[in-house]
Amino acid sequence: MSHASDAALYAQWVELLGWLEAEAAARGLGFEKVADFPDYIYRMERPYELPTTVMSVALNASGQPLMVAAVSPRHADLKNVSLRLMGGSKHWHLHAGESGLLEGKRPFTRARLVTLLDGALRGLQAV
C-alpha cells in the first residue's frame, strides 16, 4: 500500500490535534499534551522544521485518560498515527493519504472521530 509523504502525515497530525482539542472542549473532556518529539527536546540550537512539537496527547474524563493519540517520531520507518481507548483493547492505526488520514483505505474524518468519542463516552456511562 502506498502512503503519502512524511510531511503530509505530520500536517494531517496537526489537523487531527485540532479536531481532538475541539471535540474535547465540546464534551467537557480534558485535553493535555503527553509528550513532545524527542528530536525537538534534544535539538539544542538547531531549527525545528515539523509543524508541531507535540507527539502525543490524551483526552481525559473525570481526570482519567479516555483516549490517547500519538504520531510516530521522524526516525521510525513505518510512520502512523495511533488512537487508543484506555481500559480496553480498541485501537486504530492511521496512515497519511493524499488528502487526509486513512483508516486502512477509508478516510478518517472528523465525523469518524466524533463517532469513536461518543461510543467511548457511552461506554463510560454504562459502567
Automatic annotation (TrEMBL):
From what superkingdom does this record's organism come? Bacteria
Sequence intervals crossing the membrane: none
Q: Which SUPFAM superfamilies match?
A: Frataxin/Nqo15-like
Under the heading InterPro entries, the entry gives: Frataxin/CyaY_sf, NADH_quinone_OxRdtase_su15, NADH_quinone_OxRdtase_su15_sf
Fetch the Pfam families from UniProt: NADH_Oxid_Nqo15
Q: What is this protein called?
A: NADH-quinone oxidoreductase subunit 15
Q: Which organism is it from?
A: Deinococcus hohokamensis
